[in-house]
Amino acid sequence: METEANPELQHVRNYWATMKPNSPIYSFLLGDIEIMSATKGRIQAQFRVRKVHVNSKGMLHGVTSLCVMDWAGGLAIASTGRENSGVSTDIHTSYVSTAKEGDLIEVDAKANKVGSTMAFTIIEIRHAGDGGKVVAHGTHTKYIKQ
């Protein structure tokens, strides 16, 4: 975790603090997610899988992964200094493994391109630790023209 808040990290944390109370689904599913670092076009976060995150088999629910993709893609765009991360036009998620309650999960989101109208991001969700096993990865496209 970054010890000194760089401008991007401060901006992303402020953006999240403003967005969270206005989004019931984010507050419910991602209320305790922690933004670990941010640089221009990239954010990294982590959360511990809780009971509300799992399906009937006790494994990370696909809707949780998709919600994380949506959230992280928007924050990667916000890390470029934007005050508005736009609206989703496409989210694609590939589920490649799973996680269970109690697992610590890392999220890595990168804004590949932020233009004047559209932004394109790539997100990876994986188990925490060096060489963490990928749980899901995907892309998120947003319309950002203000």
Which outline best applies? globular
Q: What portion of residues is helical?
A: 25-40%
> In what order do the strands lie side by side in the largest sheet?
1-2-4-5-6-3
Strand residue content: 35-45%
Order of helices and strands: HHEEHEEEE
Terminal Cα separation, in Å?
32 Å
Q: Regions with pLDDT < 50 over 5+ consecutive residues?
A: none
Determine the structural class based on helices, strands and strand pairing: alpha+beta
The average pLDDT value, as a whole number, equals 94
* Count of helical stretches: 3
Q: How many whole angstroms does the radius of gyration measure?
A: 14 Å
Largest sheet: 6 strands, antiparallel
Number of strands: 6
Multimerization status: single chain
